Fold:
Amino acid sequence: MPSSKRSVLITGCSDGGMGAALAVAFHKAGFYVYATARNPAKMAQLASSGIKTLELDIQSDQSIADVVSKIPSLDILVNNAGTQFLMPVVDANIVDAKKLYDLNVWAHLSMIQAFLPLLLRSPNAMIVNQTSIGASVAIPFQAIYNSSKAALALLSDSLRLELQPFGIKVVDLRTGVVRTNLIKNLQQQANPTLPKGSIYEPAREIVEKALRQEGFEGQGMPAEQWAEAVVRDLQKTNSPPVIWRGESALLTRVSTVLPFGLLDGLVKKIAGLDLVEQIVKK
Structure:
């Protein structure tokens, strides 16, 4: 690796996702990029473009240690890997919900602890945690996922203060709607459905449509545009501790200073909960 280049490691870089878009954007900006994913075969496009790809399961201590041993130095760690979980709170399977937290929260903490020795040796070290605008807004049927992102956001904020004495910046990346294959994968692999006996049974069709994110395919800021903007933000001399990028990011940021519940009607309509409410009240 050329010593003149700053290095960045990004988790969750399967082709077609936000991690892959970030890897390309960092590569174009002159960084030496380590793109990682559980399945290296899913990073074929990145590998063909000259980006270094590594197998990494962030939920495996051994896998993390193997990658640490292969990297001589590191300037930026981007914790991007994660997954969705859509279900009404009262219908959520607790075991599955805990698994989501293991991936979306605790696995990132494992990454930070493992790569900290390398980051401490960098003069311009940075940790970037991919959260979501969902960490700041109540969206029906997404509470488990959004609360995991809110947990990571608060961890990031505390970590920002705790690592300041050591010269390591911590950035909370509050991403809005970005056009990736996330919804397609959700529909093909998870295909969430309400359990039998759900209180939402009278409106099952509407709720399950929301759980599958039907109607939102193809929406959002292009991943390449989002990634390039994020990389520019991160290269600023005084990069902000919270970066808001992606469709609806600005609206969500504004909503955080508006009176509580002011946007409830809007988010209920987006999720179809207004129609559900009409049906269950009959």
Summary: The beta strands are 7-10, 32-37, 52-55, 76-79, 126-130, 169-175, 178-179, 221-222, 242-245.
